[in-house]
Amino acid sequence: MPTVEPPSAERKSAISQALSEVGAAVRRSQHKDGAFAEARLVAVSKYKPASDILAAYDAGQRHFGENYVQELCDKAAVLPADIEWHFIGRLQSNKCKALAAIPNLWAVETIESAEKAHKLNAAWHGACNQRPLNVFVQVNTSGEANKGGIEPHQVEDVVQDILNSCPALHLQGLMTIGSIAGSQQRPNPDFCTLAELRNGLRQKIGVELELSMGMSDDFEHALELGATSVRVGSRIFGTRPQKESIAPAAP
User: Domain residues of the chain, as ranges?
Assistant: First the structure.
């Protein structure tokens, strides 16, 4: 089995310090009146070497987010089994079986149709996993064509379908990737839209859902607006390298 080259002492210290600062910001900014006691920090490790993830793990971080299925599979195979992985990239139906083969996959945050939910449900069930897989419905709150997710008016139908027809999945919440323009506004309109959708579903069908929103540049504001999970990459790991520059795990 491949092994992970340990991080340098300098790199380990830098990541530990960054995690401490981001964690303090999360605790300081999170909305205090929600149903969830503590916001979740997901460290986005896209394109980062396994040694960086190990450094964050050694500093106490457990939730990590990846955008590409193969990269996630490769990292999950060599990193500690108690890491709780989040898939946060565009979900392709033909990748559901590969995701379902990762036993410590904690969540898929990018469900954008009932069809893909059914594919993932079948794959997770077929892999004989002993617990339901957490999923988030991704909502395109900005209306941008290049953003993934369903339109706000479609959310209730997809939510109901998952609740009624996908027993291998646990509906954890709603997720959005806000627009760049929206991130400059206060309050952020994308975050407000997601919170309003969550509140409407709570009133209409009695389901309590998390809000996954906010990244490195705006996670503190997202928390103020009710985020229960934030996805932070560059504030922890620094600027991402190009994919081809990542060194593979040692044999």
Answer: 9-236
Distance between alpha carbon 145 and the CA centroid of its chain, in Å?
Answer: 21
- Residue 228 contacts by C-beta under 8 Å, 6 or more apart in sequence? 34, 36, 39, 40, 173, 210, 211, 212
DSSP-assigned beta bridge partners for residue 250: 3
- pLDDT for position 181: 74
- 227-241 residue pLDDT tens: 999 999 999 999 866
Other CB atoms closer than 10 Å to residue 91's CB: what's the count? 23
pLDDT digits over 100-135, tens only?
999 999 999 999 999 999 999 999 999 999 999 999
Position 140 scores a pLDDT of: 97
The string of pLDDT tens digits covering residues 162-201 is: 999 999 999 999 999 987 777 777 899 999 999 999 999 9
Architecture of domain 9-236: Alpha-Beta Barrel (3.20)
CA dihedral 8, 81, 85, 92 (to 10 degrees): 110
- SS3 sequence of 64-90: EEECCHHHHHHHHHHCCCCCEEEECCC
Contact status, residue 129 vs residue 167, Cβ threshold 8 Å: no
- What is the DSSP pairing of strand 63-66 with strand 84-87? parallel
Minimal CA–CA distance to 211: which of 124, 82, 221, 163? 221
Gap between the Cα atoms of 250 and 3, Å rounded: 6
The residue type of 226 is G
User: Per the structure block, which two tokens stand in for 239?
Assistant: 């600027």
Taking the C-alpha atoms of residue 199 and residue 5, their distance in angstroms, rounded to an integer, is: 46
